[in-house]
């Protein structure tokens, strides 16, 4: 409902305050109108008295009545040359109730007399005293009925109130539109930004970007941006620590077994001259390497936070070529071929370092899966785009994911694709893709191989604005 909104209530308050201001103006305005009305009666009475001054004879009774009727008074008294003279007269229907001297009346007295006349509906006979215009004497005095005066004051007051109502409505409407444009719309944009962020707090692109022109609103947006940034980092850290803590016991057990084996071989090398030491040395190196790798990946995942992606336009082909070349060198002793199907002109918006890490993790998993099968294989990378999405597919001809890995895919320490894997590579890759506003999907897996797809959006509706692919 409009009246329950901020702008609606502001509209009502504006109308009320403008009407209050008009009422405060109304009272002195009506008092001024009353003074002008009485002065006009005095001036008309003075003009009527000129007919008497221009002749030395008595004027006819009919003419006198007509002059008094036109002046709107009962009689006229003019003081000239220190002599007070009744210029025009007619019967007064009742006794004079009040006298008003306009020559030295103060503002408060005039306002009080005006309000008293408005609230008193009974017609009265009053005496009005004033100064003649154009130095036509020292004083002019008339008697008159208050009924025409009160009627004219009411008519004038109604016009003032109607005009005040129109002004207040127009003013309120303009202020309503201004407040809606300057305050309500930006506030709604901030609320929408909070709703969008709440849907996926891990997506860095949903963090609000301050752009309000009003200083206070911009400060609110900046504070919200800081809060969202810290909350996203805290959520990631909490998730990592929770997952890391639940796996500490398993990691400790596995790591102890690996290092125990390494220790036995090391002791044998130190205490024996047996020629078989030469054959045991590679096993020792392998055991230690596995322990180091496990420690490094665990510590990498347990870091405070992944930095938010620095999005920029980049060509995909060079990054794919670099990641493939690194894995090709690592697979030098295995029968693994690599295929790249990435259009040379394909560009996308991403963080180049994080995109390389994503591709490197997926390629490494594919290489290790094929190598573990002890069979020749192929890893293929293919990329394309449509109106809304960039898609990168990594396919291998390995043995496929084991059932446990499928059940806990992208979960650290549970979703490993190899028997001795930790699953951190997939977990980190999925988190980095989410940070880009996209998703990492398992397209298919089986005896014929595995296909993962990285899907990155070309745009996202954030804070009321659309990020276009350009």
Automatic annotation (TrEMBL):
It comes from the Bacteria. It catalyses: ATP + protein L-histidine = ADP + protein N-phospho-L-histidine. Keywords: ATP-binding, Coiled coil, Kinase, Membrane, Nucleotide-binding, Phosphoprotein, Transferase, Transmembrane, Transmembrane helix, Two-component regulatory system. One of its GO terms (molecular function) is phosphorelay sensor kinase activity. InterPro entries: HATPase_C_sf, HATPase_dom, His_kinase_dom, HisK_dim/P_dom, HisK_dim/P_sf, Sig_transdc_His_kin-like_C. Its EC number is 2.7.13.3. The chain crosses the membrane at residues 6-31, 160-179. Pfam families: HATPase_c, HisKA. It is an enzyme of class 2 (transferase). Residues 217-244 form a coiled coil. Residues 250-460 form the Histidine kinase domain. The keyword Ligase does not apply. The keyword ATP-binding applies. SMART domains: HATPase_c, HisKA. This is histidine kinase.
